[in-house]
Sequence to fold (350 residues):
Amino acid sequence: MAGITLKDVRKSYGGNVDAIKGVSLDISDGELVVLVGPSGCGKSTLLRMIAGLEAITSGEINIGGRIVNRLEPSERDIAMVFQNYALYPHMTVRQNLAYGLKNRNVPAAEIDQRIQSTARSLEIEAFLERKPRQLSGGQRQRVAMGRAIVREPAAFLFDEPLSNLDAKLRVQMRVEIKRLQRSLATTSVYVTHDQMEAMTLADRLVVLNSGRIEQVGTPIELYERPATTFVATFIGSPSMNLLKPTETSTIALSPGNRLGGADTTIGVRPEDLHLADGASDVAFRVKVRVQAAELVGAESYVYGALADGQAVVFRVSGRSAIAMDTECVVTASAGSLHFFDGHGNRIEPA
Ligand SMILES: Nc1ncnc2c1ncn2[C@@H]1O[C@H](COP(=O)(O)OP(=O)(O)O)[C@@H](O)[C@H]1O
Ligand SMILES: [Mg+2]
Fold:
């Protein structure tokens, strides 16, 4: 069993930059947890502390039942995959894969056998005798993955491993990583700033904001019940609309659906807003002046503003037939509305 437990882990650089401000987290054996958040929120710092590449300022890190605070990276039984591959350029793929095993005195026959099965599962058997420079970016990324896999570590740590790949390859590799992680059932921590990658990969998502955990949950939990406005706008694209019912906003909320006080913000996702169809019993309704529309394939996003200037975006299927600079009315059902208090925290119905 190789779960990972973080207890009130903190990191300050040079005494004044508090990069991680107290993170506690339980990662189960075999689970794939994704750390996601904007650039600079502390994702790499946290991952590097788990790896042992960065000392922790305080707290406790436990991997597979051992407190590893004082252990060197090589003693922690983890393997890391970075975005810049970090392959040895003068070694062949086979030598790159074998290197870490030779250092651990794994017998030669077992090294051969592990390389064969790893190369097969990653479909890199044909490149084993090539040098990294003779490989494409995607192939190098597979080799980097392979080097982690042959080690058979207690945990994989990924730091934005797909950032250097083009969009199409990134999606392919994302699916591949998910498949491999499932079949190996190795505990994994995966760092990305890409909420789409995070949503599709994660068993559980950890949203970090300025060195603190904002929310932990399955992708669907975070999508459907974001705990804060930060999570609400970070997860989902385009972002959830956050609207203030001001005197001139023309927002109409049916009685019984209003939560919180005067400082309440209403959240509604672009896909949950619909052009009004005349039905009178809707929970939420607002007039929007249409300013722009983007066709993104099977659907369009319409961008506009409320009477008081607040920006709003909603989704329509197919090509938008809505004329620019006209007014329309959009509505939302009670179940699709989110409410946040003046501090940005979710309000639940009593
Ligand atoms: N070696 C360092 N010295 C000082 N500050 C650092 C160092 N490494 C990271 N930081 C700071 O810590 C914060 C978190 O950085 P990082 O973990 O790299 O963020 P992320 O990976 O989420 O983009 C940032 O404010 C960054 O500037
Ligand atoms: Mg980083």
